[in-house]
């Protein structure tokens, strides 16, 4: 790098061409070069070449690598518009030319590619996209290339950015120097440790607009200059392209979507790569600023070329800092994810949705428009984030990597139904059984909680020969005809199916028997006897219980309630269905299945919602003896139920819950949050009661007369939404704030929720 570029005269160059390559040139036109001397060569016969006399300091093994790489690319992707190396008259890859000093200079001849170097500010979005796409194709073409010289050091290798620190003294502007130092510090802390884990290969390393030619149609027509080729993380190729193609553009950050989009249309980025992209881009820009400052001092004559990209690099760095590197990182990562649909403005999307799906409910007066999720966070199209305190489906966190991987891998391999022998459904069934009491020994995998509860109802009727059910007064168990009947929460006014009897949910705050009263739990359970009696001739086939009584207002009666309820049901000959769709998968913080805290042995257990972290999968686990009542010829089969992809998702979720200790986390963070809510209750008379277990908590809002304050609950959830915190309200009167976040919720998230709630309640 410190050695000066060659300076052969045209005469000398023509002679080398003639003697070394057997090419008679009719004209030579000098072209720009940072460390090589380049000419465009025209012959009388109308042929055109690129002639390159390289720096004598260039290692010959590296030149050999470049020649081998070009041959490799030609073999793998012959249509890629890459320059081709032409052999010397002696069949070598280059000739050694004695220079004016005592050293020899390697000279090479290449095909001359059509097209022109275009100022990056003149590139259209399509051209930028094409640049990204061709960068990825080149990376793919080089994927299988190996050369022993590939591990050499070049100044421009982003991964070696920290080595530029000593050159920082050449950056004279102290503010600029401080900015570059910030990039370096962050690089060392965040990027460098992750680099060894990224997929790496030989990359071009300098896909800048100087090295990529465009045709008049704004498509890439040529890739030249393989002088920065080295073994490095693949993502560096894209980072260089983003930095160099976009620097100096006013829309640098926005236009990154196009270049990234073009790239990932060929080669999707892995999560780690996508997450580091913005830092790698900043690193390239910082290198540009630093190296330019240094070289300006070294080669004042070549300064114009060396500095050409530098003002743009500075502007791009400023733009990144202005937006905040983390926000830029999120934006780039989102671009890497390739949203599969067009982005509509929120208002027009809302209008279309209301027209096309008139009965599909939406939360909030200003519905939240979401495009992605990550852990406990959800993001809207403007990358505004919302803390998810509501969703139990993403139980292990939104977009959990292991679940995503399990699903995509399985989808790639095989996605059929369950009538073929396949490992996943068997493994899932065995794993579920292992978590449950031994008498629950038969698993059926279906697609939704409704379907599982519906199936449970059929089995209960067949097994008992009875036709009536008992549910709590505001229960929810599903959407189908049979489960809607089991869901008083959703009954129309006056609707009361004749085969259903309700019991008061064990609400020790507002119900007929209050917490602390003697025998209050037993008195609630005793209602089962009355309900069974009310079913009359139909008979008592089953009681469905959500052990967390979520729709009934999130109640957490002591374990004696379930014990007493199960005992009475058994005496009455009715089956107990534990609906773990809400409370299961570790949410209660004590066991994987919430009923286990009471030690009861239900006849059937239903699981759903969180089971696939968003992939539809649900299950019913029953005592196999009950199934004997369903005639053999009745096939219990559902097309999608238990398909390999669903099972892969469910298995991944169980594994993550265990590996990340999420049951214990639900207990720990849940009790911290509960404590915080109780503290708020001391300050805010609007809070009448705080209850729940683990990470399923209810906050009952009351008016001055302790009546349900449903209007306030709505106002609070709306105000929380405006503050970027998502929760909801539940209960018979809709006055109970429902807090039910993904189980990866941590103390810091609880603090955010508590602080916002404190402020909102203070202004309510
Ligand atoms: N049971 C309970 C306790 C539920 O909360 C729900 C859904 N909210 C269901 C069953 C029905 O599940 P799905 O919506 O998957 O059909």
Strand order of the largest sheet: 14-20-19-18-17-15-16
Determine the fraction of residues in helical runs and give it as a percent range: 25-40%
Q: State the CATH superfamily name of the largest domain.
A: Aminoglycoside phosphotransferase (APH), C-terminal lobe
What are the distinct ligands in this entry? 4'-deoxy-4'-aminopyridoxal-5'-phosphate
User: What is the arithmetic mean of pLDDT?
Assistant: 94
Low-confidence blocks of residues = none
Question: Which band does the percent of strand residues land in?
Answer: 15-25%
CATH architecture call of the largest domain: Alpha-Beta Complex
Which value, in Å, is the CA radius of gyration?
A: 34 Å
What is the β-strand count? 25
What is the distance, rounded to the nearest whole angstrom, between the alpha carbons of the first and last residues? 67 Å
Number of H/I helices: 22
What keyword list fits this structure?
764 residues, binds 4'-deoxy-4'-aminopyridoxal-5'-phosphate, alpha+beta, Aminoglycoside 3'-phosphotransferase, Chain: A, domain 2, Aspartate Aminotransferase, domain 2, Phosphorylase Kinase, domain 1, seven-stranded mixed beta sheet, 4 domains, six-stranded antiparallel beta sheet, 22 helices
